[in-house]
Amino acid sequence: MSLRIESVVLLAMIAIQNPSAPPTPVPHVDLGRYAGRWHEVARFPNRFQAKCVGETTADYTLLPDGQIRVVNRCATAGGGSSQAEGRARLAEPGGRTSTLKVRFAPTWLSFLPLVWGDYWILDLTDDYRAALVGSPDRKYLWILARTPVLDAPTYQRLVATAAAQGFDVARLVKSPAQAGNAAE
Prior knowledge:
- With 184 residues, the protein is α+β, with helices and mostly antiparallel strands.
- The protein has a single domain (24-173), classed as Calycin beta-barrel core domain (Lipocalin, Beta Barrel).
- 20% of the residues lie in helices and 34% in strands.
- It has an 8-stranded antiparallel beta barrel with strand order 1-2-3-4-5-6-7-8.
- The radius of gyration is 17 Å and the shape is globular.
């Protein structure tokens, strides 16, 4: 009987959520503290990372013009690697520092809105060692950390935040390092 009550409560909570409302980003991010290297701990599968089979990192560097240089790297099959360089900027000039737009298309295409993808920081630990990043349409989601493996309580907190924000966390795929973490 208890399991049935828990199931009803869970279904009610899901029904209350408004999936058409976008997720809520954190109020503020110190982009200077956010800059640096991040390791991908988990992600939703996506076409542009299809060839990534191992260690995936993102390096963010603040630029004098206010934009952020983004360099994504990952290990590929056969021992190779792949790299993509792009730029990030605030989604709205003077807006939240937690809602960014990122492009990996050539600079000369920057004027086209469709080359800019949404990058919303949905959760961030106080010490800037772990982050949850997603898109407002909930198609993309990443769990990032300053180290290749994230401790289980922090990982579970970020997954819970994603679920509460309407993301289908069953789609999350852990990085090889995180998947091999016995503490989880």
